[in-house]
Design a protein that fits this description.
Length: 162
């Protein structure tokens, strides 16, 4: 029995999402964008105070974790480091974001109680960066410090196993 070949039919379903969302060239409300930039400019004066507050919270959480070694204290320390990781770029401290990211990676991958010295090194590095207003890794000492911290975290996670 021979098979008869049918012509291939291709149909393109309508893209209703594009109709609902619009295109990339949709009108942008420039006045709203300008108002947002002005509001952010006004808030920038408060960034230094806010990062100081977040850093102090991180130090307090680290101290509580070191003293009690409880899972609640560990969770609070992890949340504080996540908050700094998320907010540091907004506060214009990319070096703090990198250190906090490294700390989060460490805490996610290991039992932080066994690595309390490395956890403390991260917290102290953040405290010094905020205190001395070191904002990015352009500073040679800051670059060497973050590189060493990240290296130690990689080594620790490699030896921690699955």
């Amino acid at each position: 029995m021979s098979q008869t070949r049918r012509p291939i039919e291709i149909f393109q379903p309508p893209n209703v999402l594009r109709q609902k969302v619009g295109t990339a060239t949709a009108a942008i409300d420039l006045s709203a964008l300008k108002r947002a930039e002005e509001a952010l400019g006004k808030l920038k004066s408060e960034f230094a105070e806010w990062i100081e507050t977040e850093m102090e919270r991180l130090v307090e959480c680290r101290d509580a974790f070191a003293a009690t070694k409880s899972s609640d204290a560990r969770d609070a320390l992890f949340r504080a480091s996540l908050d700094l990781k998320g907010q540091a770029l907004t506060f214009e401290y990319p070096i703090v974001e990198r250190i906090a990211t490294s700390l989060c990676t460490l805490m996610e991958g290991t039992d932080s109680l066994k690595e309390l010295g490395l956890v403390s090194a991260h917290v102290d590095a953040i405290r010094i960066a905020v205190r001395d207003k070191v904002k990015d890794a352009g500073d040679g000492v800051a670059a060497a410090l973050i590189s060493e911290l990240e290296s130690r975290v990689r080594e620790t996670l490699a030896t921690a196993g699955p």
